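dumping these here so i dont lose them again. two proteins, back to back, each one seq then structure tokens. dont judge the mess
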Amino acid sequence: MKNSSSTKGLVVPEARKIAFVSPRYSPGGTVGGAETLLRSLAEYAAANGWEVDFLTTCAEDHFSWENAREPGVERSGELTIHYFPVNEDRDIGVFRQIQESISNEGVFFDEDEELWMRNNVNSSKLNDYLECEGASYDRLVMGPYLFGLIFYASLICPEKTLLVPCLHDEPFAYLQIMRRMFEAVGGFMFNSEPEAQLARSIFDIEEKSQSVVGMGLDSFNADPGAFASRHGIDVPYVMYAGRREAMKGTPLLCDYMNVFRQRTGRDVKLVFTGKGVIDAPSELEPHIIDVGFVNEKEKREAMAGATAFIHPSVNESFGIVLMESWLVRTPALVHANSAVLRWQCEQSNAGLWFRTYPEFEEELLLLLDNRRVSETLGAAGREYVQTRYSMESVGARLLSALDGESQ
């Protein structure tokens, strides 16, 4: 690292102490993609000589946000984890009412945005800590952008804050209150170039420090026959991993798979890992294999044996599970309206994208029937992740970003 760094929007001496701020942290369990990303970056920084604190809440469940553990400080590997309670006085009814208006692009006002943020997931105790100790850190890295926790924390020491927004093209991104945060912080670490382009199109951040970093993944292999053998699957299957909800596109996936089976007569199963209710037609339910939360080994084996990893979400800034599926040479089908996932497929030559059901059917049939195409796409995906998102490549981009160098 350099003795000093100076860029527009971010002027600080050589950084040695850093705090990461994220809504959840789990040393052994499963949290969201954005939180997994923040933890990965924190661990890499700590392994490369930084003194790293991770500031988070006592919550574990992303639906209830109940305080599931005691506040306090503990060590996790090379990180010092600070747990703070989520505010329990939030009016969830008000929050959901305004959030629904925003999501549906209904009528709401600036004061509603403030009220929505105040009743979002917040931690006054975490903010109090940053008010007292923020000056002791050379960098504050925090995200994702949608949480009140991140909004209020980012405004405490904005000049030394690097936001990892995990930004999507959604109604929340266009709120005036979001403009206040994006234009206050000192810089950004984006996950992909489309995400960075979206941010620049919405906010006045051209003079800010900006880097496209992403998340590093270690290479791994998995037995492509193990999952099917374990679960008694003797026909092809496709797979989805993650939260099951409309924002992730899982109802659409179920509808498309149901129509695919009926139109083509092909017996293809649909495997789910993750958490949440699966909204599926009754005719498809016997052909869904829901294994819930699984360990990494089983998830990877499920990916390795799938004909395709299907990522129907349009709200992604990176796509960790997409990268994992490519590491086991499984081609992808993604929604064309996801600028990021489509861009990843274009960059890697490892996936296809669909906008309508007829495209979905044509592409899935291609992967089922043309082994050469499927293997070529899968091999390209593994090479892409190993090159672009190796720990070394991402780590180099991270350290440059922390030194204030735009990329």
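---- next one ----
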Amino acid sequence: MRSCDVFGIQDLHVVEERLGKRIDREIAMGAQKWVSLHRYNSITGCMETLRKDGYQIIATTPHNDSVQLHDFDITKKSAFFFGTEKDGLSDTVINAADGFLKIPMYGFTESLNISVSAAIILQSVVTRLKQTKINWKLTETEKLELEMEWTKRTIKSTDEIIERYYQEKKP
């Protein structure tokens, strides 16, 4: 979540089939206020939603014939899937993925932890996107809507303030 916030990724989709719905606020360091979190009970539900929104499913894995990060095609709308630290990605994701991506590694260790992998991939993709003319940024309307959501998350009693505002506006 922090990596999404730091690199300007607005939407984070999390599948919580086994571990339940819990955000560790100390680990998130406030990022939960700024990142739009979408939660799912099943991996298939998450993939279906993302595909309907025009995303390709990209499985991040150091195995098989994955594309190297520096060769990844950033022109397509992509959702990156990361597995658990212990088990990696599920067969469901591997079998349904539209593509595979790996971070180049030169030592003997087979993989990185999830937060490090996510940060490396997001930093690379965002940096490359910023160097193109690809239309990847939020629209002005989307920015205004987000600013309103962020304001509501940071100001106490926003519902009461908004209600009072509309009451005072009535003739």
